[in-house]
Design goal:
mainly alpha; 10 helices
Length: 206
């Protein structure tokens, strides 16, 4: 199994979740233009629930238990497509971390283990959504983050790649989801709301 420092985990999660909560007005603005306007509140509700969970007691020292606990909160607090995708991804991440750590004695959850877990989770997510980079969804930010982390083991580089992926959705024609029915003016004026929300979350882990 893989261990995490509970204090560091709580600090990083608090920063990331607070960043996502603060992004709600901007996500809502974007989603009002290109979606049905509920993405921001959906993400904020989930983030507030996970933040309350993190602050209620020290996070577990086991990385798999930590992620599974967060996934459980997300399942019970987030509605809509975003909630389903985050829950699937987090549950798959927990399984991926378990596989990456192997049967070895307890060891720290290294960047290599996190990268392997994230790669496995991305593969699992692909079984539940047809979304690919270029479809104007949160996947446009998620894939470059996971790929870059796997290649560099550097979180800042991975977050920057996610940021660029999110920016690339400006002007991108949607092929999935509510944005399919939106005029080109909406696509050109803002990034995908889900991708933007994910970037704001990931920025907290830099």
């Amino acid at each position: 199994s893989s261990s995490v420092d509970p204090q560091v985990a709580a600090q990083k999660l608090t920063t990331a979740l607070t960043s996502l909560i603060a992004a709600e007005p901007q996500v809502t603005k974007y989603d009002t233009l290109v979606g049905d306007g509920d993405c921001g509140l959906c993400l904020k509700t989930g983030a507030e629930a996970v933040l309350a969970h993190v602050q209620s007691s020290p996070p577990p020292t086991d990385a798999v238990r930590l992620v599974r606990g967060i996934a459980h909160v997300v399942e019970n607090s987030m509605d809509g497509t975003s909630g389903a995708l985050y829950a699937i991804f987090l549950n798959a991440l927990a399984s991926g971390l378990q596989s990456a750590a192997g049967q070895a004695a307890r060891q720290p959850a290294t960047p290599q283990i996190w990268a392997a877990g994230l790669k496995a989770a991305l593969g699992s997510l692909g079984k539940y959504t047809p979304a690919q980079p270029g479809d104007r969804t949160l996947v446009d930010a998620l894939v470059p983050f996971v790929d870059t982390l796997g290649g560099t083991l550097d979180v800042r580089s991975a977050v920057e790649a996610a940021r660029k992926g999110c920016e690339s959705t400006k002007g991108m024609e949607a092929s999935l989801g509510r944005s399919v029915y939106v005029s080109a003016e909406g696509w050109n004026s803002c990034p995908d709301p889900g991708a933007y929300g994910l970037v704001r979350l990931l920025e907290g882990f830099e």
